[in-house]
Specification:
The protein is of the alpha+beta class and 295 residues long. The protein is 29% helix and 18% strand. The protein has eight helices and 13 strands. The chain has helices at residues 17-20, 33-48, 62-77, 93-107, 173-183, 185-188, 229-234, 246-259; strands spanning 28-30, 81-85, 153-157, 164-165, 168-172, 194-198, 210-214, 216-219, 222-225, 266-268, 275-279, 283-287, 290-291. Helix 3 packs across helix 4. The longest helix has 16 residues, at 33-48. The N and C termini lie far apart (55 Å). 33% of the residues are buried. The model has no long low-confidence stretch (mean pLDDT 91).
Length: 295
């Protein structure tokens, strides 16, 4: 039996973008000089242990631990995201990456970004074709569309801005569900039904190239989300994958439409040194298409 809320969801994660856009001070935080010094010290000690080749290298930093403890509850049980500002990104790229690694290790445990086992991944345009089912969209300059990643928390560090475009956007799964419930309550339940999703070539050897999972699930009266519309659509290329019903397609179309609503999602321009931390189980994220500088 599917558990589907029949009334609008409430709570700190059921926010609207038009409200948060007016109060950036509630979700932005600038790193202090002491926190930056602690990150630098920990990064240097970790590099001395052989990082990044020694991925088990650890350098505890009490000031960083205190920083992360201060926003962990906000990530997991509150608004679901935070924008940290002011991380230095000039100089030795290994040291830049080590700062982010230290911050991440004080938030949680690193997990693979892809089938190649990358624990840190570069989000850049590699010239791949977004229409190719084997392409990961973060390797193109095309809009990603609202989606989730396969981790509890995703951390994104901005190294450079694009010549144009590349805006980041976040949306609350709870608020998106509320909008679907208000506009077409007869479709809301379809979002809680399992649908086939493409592994995009990153499935285990001998395993199915697709998996089944609902877009939304209810856990302890909170809605959780796993979503990438392009991967749901591309899973239909497999003849043994369950077919999407007209009702499911209509529900997914409406879910996309409410996520694209400027009143629902929150857009932001990331600056070099910004670190965006997002709880994947409550929020979806997006990036608009961009054009790189000629160099």
């Amino acid at each position: 039996m599917l558990l589907v809320p029949s009334t609008p969801l409430t709570g700190p994660d059921a926010w609207r973008g038009d409200v948060l856009a007016a109060h950036p001070e509630t979700w932005q935080q600038r790193l202090t000089a002491d926190e930056l010094a602690a990150l630098d010290d920990a990064a240097d000690r970790m590099i001395a242990q052989g990082w990044p080749h020694a991925t088990g290298a650890v350098a505890d930093a009490p000031a960083v631990a205190a920083l992360c403890a201060g926003f962990r509850d906000e990530l997991l049980f509150g608004r679901g995201f935070l924008l940290l500002r002011g991380l230095p990104v000039d100089g030795d790229p290994v040291r830049v990456a080590a700062r982010l690694w230290v911050l991440g290790r004080h938030v949680g445990e690193p997990v693979s970004q892809n089938a190649r086992g990358h624990l840190l991944g570069h989000v850049r345009d590699l010239g791949y074709d977004a229409a190719d089912p084997a392409t990961r969209l973060y390797q193109t300059n095309q809009r990603q569309g609202f989606h989730t990643d396969s981790a509890d928390v995703v951390g994104l560090l901005c190294l450079r801005t694009a010549q144009s475009g590349g805006r980041s956007a976040l949306a609350s799964a709870a608020s998106a569900f509320n909008a679907v419930l208000a506009r077409a309550p007869e479709l809301a339940g379809a979002l809680f039904e399992p649908v086939a999703t493409d592994h995009r070539g990153e499935h285990p050897p001998g395993g199915r190239p697709w998996f089944e999972i609902p877009v939304l699930s209810l856990l302890d009266e909170r809605v959780t989300v796993i979503y990438q519309r392009r991967y749901i659509d591309s899973a239909q290329r497999f003849p043994d994958a369950p077919r999407l019903s007209d009702r499911q397609r209509a529900a997914l179309d409406l879910f996309d439409a409410v996520l694209d609503d400027p009143a629902i999602h929150l857009e932001m321009d990331l600056e070099p040194g910004d670190v965006q931390l997002v709880h994947n189980h409550q929020l979806l994220h997006d990036r608009t298409a961009f054009v790189d500088d000629p160099d």
